[in-house]
From TrEMBL:
Keywords noted in UniProt: Disulfide bond, Hydrolase, Lysosome, Protease, Signal, Thiol protease, Zymogen
The name this protein goes by in its record: Pro-cathepsin H isoform X2
Gene Ontology biological-process annotations: proteolysis
SMART domains tied to this protein: Inhibitor_I29 (SM00848), Pept_C1 (SM00645)
Domain Peptidase C1A papain C-terminal: 116-276
SUPFAM superfamilies: Cysteine proteinases (SSF54001)
Length: 276
């Protein structure tokens, strides 16, 4: 898993025409070949009208990827399942647009003075990191960040790595200022688990990827939260200390256009807003 967990959240979207006045890109035969290969790989099919729109978006992303990878950056870009979308479409479909009052603007973690390790990877320490999961078309990113960090904390404390119920958070955590598939915050989800007295496992509360009625059964809760600690936004040394001494953390950041095509490496963007 991750020492930190990026978040994405979902809303509704409608496919619209290209922006008024935007000129179509001149597409080469090689770019068309790569687009058709990508369509086969991702099992994509379009109507004639939508094909042109998606080809234009793909070529624009393809060129950005090549230009970025030719430069000197800390991370690489690559094609993925979102490569036929503009960033504007991605925002409408996957990113929560409501303002978020992040708890990490003020921290309550009192850190030491070091020394700090140069690197920490809990994946190499044992079975402490759960597999990557897919939120689908639901703005439940915040639930996966919450369960991922809590799963690791439980595994480190007990030697048992659970798979916790994101769907419970989607369905049940609204009283803590979360909004199911319309977004939420891990800090508020942890508070829900704390005061709710537990979260069920994914085997007894499976993920549906859509809003539903709360089906929490207290007798089936398998993980609990005693307290929640917030690391102040942009306090990198505190984050290193927490990850090194305790467990992976939950991290939220503002998704920008270059993250749409992230492939590998250390993601870095000067103006991105990070919170833990």
């Amino acid at each position: 898993m991750w020492a930190v967990l990026p978040l994405l959240c979902v809303g509704a979207w409608l496919l619209g025409p290209t922006a008024c006045g935007a000129a179509d890109l001149a597409v080469s035969s090689l770019e068309k070949f790569h687009f058709k290969s990508w369509m086969l790989q991702h099992q994509k099919k379009y109507s004639s009208e939508e094909y042109h729109h998606r080809l234009q978006a793909f070529v624009s992303n393809w060129r950005k990827i090549n230009a970025h990878n030719a430069g000197n950056h800390t991370f690489k870009m690559g094609l993925n399942q979102f490569s036929d979308m503009s960033f504007a479409e991605l925002k409408r479909k996957y990113l929560w647009s409501e303002p978020q009052n992040c708890s990490a603007t003020k921290g309550n973690y009192l850190r030491g003075t070091g020394p700090y390790p140069s690197s920490v990877d809990w994946r190499k320490k044992g079975n402490f990191v759960s597999p990557v999961k897919n939120q689908g078309r639901c703005g439940s990113c915040w639930t996966f960040s919450t369960t991922g960090a809590l799963e690791s904390a439980v595994a480190i404390a007990t030697g048992r790595l659970p798979s916790l119920a994101e769907q419970q958070l989607v369905d049940c955590a609204q009283n803590f200022n979360n909004h199911g598939c319309q977004g939420g915050l891990p800090s508020q989800a942890f508070e829900y688990i704390r005061y709710n007295k537990g979260i069920m496992g994914e085997d007894t509360y499976p993920y549906k990827g859509q809003d539903g009625d709360c089906k929490f059964q207290p007798s089936k809760a398998i993980a609990f939260v005693k307290d929640v600690v917030n690391v102040t936004m942009n306090d990198e040394e505190a984050m290193v200390e927490v990850v090194a001494l305790y467990n992976p953390v939950s991290l939220a950041f503002e998704v920008t256009d270059d993250f749409l095509m992230y492939k590998k490496g250390i993601y870095s963007r000067p103006l991105a807003c990070f919170a833990m």
